Amino acid sequence: MPEVMPETVVVGAARAGRFATVLIVTGSAILAVVALAAIVAPLLTGWGPTEIDPLGTLVPPGPGHPLGTDANGMDVWSRLLYAGRLDLGIAVAGVAAAVVAGTALGLVAGYLGGWVDDVLMRVVDVFQAFPTFILALAVAALVGNGTGNLIAVIAAVNAPAYARLVRAEVRTVRESSFVAASVTSGASTFGVLWRHVLPNSLTPVRVIAPLNAGWAMLTLAGLSFLGLGVTVPAAEWGAMISLGSPDVVAGRWWTSVPPGLVLLICVLGFSLLGEGLQERAEAKRR
Amino acid sequence: MRIARFVGRRLLQLIPVLLGVVVLTFLLVRVLPGDPIRTILGPNATPEDAAAARARYGLDQPMVKQFLDYLGGLVTGDLGTSIQSGTSVGAEIGLRIGPTFELVVLALAVALVVAVLLGVWSARHADRAGDHGVRLAALVGNSMPEFWLGLVLILVGYSVLGWFPAPSGRVDPDTNLTPLTGADLLDAALTLNGPAFGSALAHLILPVATLSIVVVAPLLRSVRASALEVLHSEPYVAATAHGLRGRTLLRGYLLRATLARLPSLAALVFGTSIGSTVLVEYVFSWQGFGQWALRGLLYRDYPVVQASVLVIAFCYVVVFLIADVVQAVLDPRVQI
């Protein structure tokens, strides 16, 4: 039995690696298609995202409007395409800001330790005493809903998790001999952090960030659905679903089903990408 | 005894966190823009009216005095008075928490059962077609906007098929249900009101299904992963090698070891389900705690916002505590 073990492990790792690649490619492809569609939206539709068709509201899908019009008489297909700009843009920018802020905090807390660490981590504790969406809801309701504010909300609710994650990594890296060598050879604190500690503490962040971007899209759409995020007439999937929700009871599917479906597919893209990165990281560790 | 001491110590540790939550919410609602008085008085109010209303709710006092009054009230169990409705916040919570608990408890129960059954099955058939199907479904569930799923279920279940009642209200008013706890299904069962029980159940199915689908996905993934780990663990392999019967293997070795990892996970999932509940209540006009808290937030009803945030944070941390205790009971290796 033991003689066979190494080979099976290698075969298993190779298979896991291939599977990870499939996930990463599929996820990236989905995201690329959605992003591309959002960018070249003007080529794919004749209607503007907030242009009103004077001939009718709630027109069913047909030749003039591939996915019909909503209660305001705006073309659903056009809004669906343009919405990707806000949805992807805000989610990705928000998570990027969360990564930067959280990493900086975690780096400082983990490396300096002492009272700085204590104070920062207690603040993180308070933030993490809430479910993320509830926190986002409260902050968004209080600060209001401009695009910049929404990016800040996404960043603020996600940053604590990165701070905790990076801090834990930093505390291990801090003890390694190459850091000690760098310190004794007279490198500045900033130099040590930037050149040695930071690059070696980012592995978990790289895996979590794509998954996080998917959740951020759900958070944003959820906020918009409740009227606390992007508001109509701006094109955003959650706001579109919100506007279309009364139609559902009357059996009109085209105003709310398509935006939700695209949102789901897009979040799935991020999930697949994150899953793939995780599998790859695990395969490497074995 | 050890458990009692552990719970006591953990409860003490909660005090600074909850105090932080109290201070933070108190400051945030007041510092950030928005004024509860303006929203109740309307646009035609004179500055004198506004000043009078402000004085009535103690909002003209210095911030420190307001905070100490609020804290004093909290210690004696008084959560304040809603600026919007003028009634006691504690009483309103009592009215609203029942329906929400009913929804969350049922959804979590369904999700836990489904996650354990499917997760263990999937792990035992790892890397076969069925397993791939389950994993894909879990991934889709994990990416699902719950509010949209609710709408799709309403579209199919109510508008197209007509099998379920319209998404408004929790029980048919014609059934004359006597409210006791606010959880309609429980009330109907307690008062032996058959028609009300049926009506409450019919109203519950779609929202519970919505919530359980989004909750089951992360649970399922973790159950599968931990069952897989158990299947490859030395004790399990040894038990198989000794030729133990399938049933003994499943019950004694696989299920128990898998379940021991579940509590902390369930607590985490409970956290996300609170956020989803707000959205699901909104979609189904459920009139529960989530909708009440959301309205308070929109109208800047300070006492309501403060109380609902505190209640949520409290539930969240207490659930984690319960999870740790259950884990310790299930898994003798856990030292507390």
TrEMBL record, chain A:
Gene Ontology cellular component annotations, sorted alphabetically: plasma membrane
Top-level lineage group: Bacteria
Pfam families: BPD_transp_1 (PF00528)
Transmembrane segments: 21-44, 88-112, 133-157, 177-194, 215-235, 255-277
Major localization class: membrane
Keyword Cell membrane recorded: yes
One annotated GO biological process: transmembrane transport
Cell compartment(s), UniProt: Cell membrane
Topology within the bilayer: Multi-pass membrane protein
This protein's record includes keyword Oxidoreductase: no
Sequence ranges assigned to domain ABC transmembrane type-1 in this UniProt record: 84-274
Keywords tagged on the record: Cell membrane, Membrane, Transmembrane, Transmembrane helix, Transport
Family under the similarity heading: Belongs to the binding-protein-dependent transport system permease family.
Annotated protein name in UniProt: ABC transporter permease
Species name: Herbidospora galbida
Automatic annotation (TrEMBL), chain B:
Membrane topology: Multi-pass membrane protein
Primary localisation category: membrane
Gene Ontology terms: cellular component: plasma membrane
Record localization: Cell membrane
Protein family: Belongs to the binding-protein-dependent transport system permease family.
Keyword terms, alphabetized: Cell membrane, Membrane, Transmembrane, Transmembrane helix, Transport
CDD domains noted in UniProt: TM_PBP2
Classification via Gene3D superfamilies: MetI-like
Protein name as catalogued: ABC transporter permease
Transmembrane segments: 12-32, 103-126, 147-166, 200-220, 265-284, 304-330
InterPro entries according to UniProt: BPD_transp_1_N, MetI-like, MetI-like_sf
